[in-house]
Amino acid sequence: MRRIALVTLVVDDYDEAIRFYTEALGFRLAEDEPRPDGSRWVVVEPGSAGQGVGLLLARAKDEAQRGRIGDQTGGRVGFFLHTGDFARDHARMLAAGVRFLEEPRHEPYGSVAVFQDLYGNRWDLLQPAAG
């Protein structure tokens, strides 16, 4: 079966990004390997291995890439973090300093709130409706 395994997220600093995704969002560090060119292969995942798409944290290599940091989807929500316990994860993320752009909403499709990552990329924290 084919599946999307990784999505690249351009970041400014590996260690800063690792801290945010692991500490503030609760992801796990799946890989952090040095590359011959001085870069690193850094992958964070939201759950256990193989339970979702991992993020490849790629440090910007030039001005064009640096200009994309935080605006990889043109200001739209580009990432969707599903949860089985919206209230718990929302509270934990708020306590960790994650910036939410709105109050939680309860829509027919589930509970949702838009937040920004370390660089300003927009995410949905979403608990899909049962059924």
In short:
The chain has helices at residues 14-24, 63-66, 86-95, and strands spanning 6-11, 28-34, 40-45, 54-59, 77-82, 99-100, 105-107, 110-116, 122-128. It has 131 residues and is an alpha+beta fold. Strands 5, 6, 7, 8 and 9 form a 5-stranded mixed β-sheet that branches. Strands 1-4-3-2 form a 4-stranded mixed β-sheet, covered by helices on one side.
Written overview of the protein:
- This protein has three helices and nine strands.
- With 131 residues, it is an alpha+beta fold.
- Strands 5, 6, 7, 8 and 9 form a five-stranded mixed sheet that branches. A four-stranded mixed sheet has the order 1-4-3-2, covered by helices on one side.
- The longest helix is centred in the first third of the chain and has 11 residues, at 14-24.
Low-confidence stretches: none
Report the helical percentage. 10-25%
Shape: globular
> How many whole angstroms does the radius of gyration measure?
15 Å
Give the averaged pLDDT, no decimals: 94
| Beta-strand proportion | 35-45%
How far apart the termini lie comes to 26 Å
SSE string, helices as H and strands as E: EHEEEHEHEEEE
Structural class: alpha+beta
- Which sheet architecture does the biggest sheet show? 5 strands, mixed
